[in-house]
Design a protein that fits this description.
This is GNAT family N-acetyltransferase. The protein is α+β, with helices and mostly antiparallel strands. The protein is built from 4 helices and 7 strands; from the N terminus they run βααβββαβαββ.
Length: about 150
């Protein structure tokens, strides 16, 4: 696979549809469940609801959205990588940036069925601090925490 130049940039709504497409595909593959919200609702959530509490960054390769992360100094709300671009360091690049800007402690949730995400977070220093929280998908989840050394 040739080395791609990955650009990390603040979210811009011109990427809304690409971002939501990537997000839905990635999540569907991860949890084996179709997205419960319609596409337009998802775009609205990305453009209007999520930015109220979180900064959103995108990973781009040649103007194509290959990853997104939504975070603040204490929490990661969303982290999705394009299904064709997983395992090449995009998630780590996004995570490292968020860790550097964090309060020294981050929490996040991931679905219990998403074993790839669990391996990823554990490899990057996150530890399980809770299980079984409520979510719209009605799937058991895991809460992780990372603390800077």
């Amino acid at each position: 696979m040739k080395k791609h130049k990955i650009i990390i940039t603040k979210y811009n709504s011109k990427y809304a549809e690409q971002t939501v497409d990537m997000w839905r595909d990635s999540k569907e593959q991860a949890i084996g469940q179709t997205e419960i919200h319609g596409f337009e609702n998802h775009v609205y959530f990305l453009n209007h609801i999520l930015p109220e509490q979180f900064q959103i960054d995108l990973a781009l390769i040649d103007e194509k959205v290959v990853g997104m992360i939504a975070y603040n100094e204490r929490e990661i709300s969303q982290l999705y990588i394009h299904i064709d671009y997983q395992g090449i360091g995009i998630g780590q690049t996004l995570l490292d940036k968020v860790k550097a800007q964090s309060s020294g402690r981050l929490t996040l949730y991931t679905f219990e069925v998403n074993e790839n995400a669990q391996r990823f977070y554990e490899k990057h220093g996150f530890e399980i601090i809770g299980r079984g929280h409520e979510n719209e998908e009605k799937l058991p989840d895991i809460q992780y925490e990372w603390k800077s050394k």
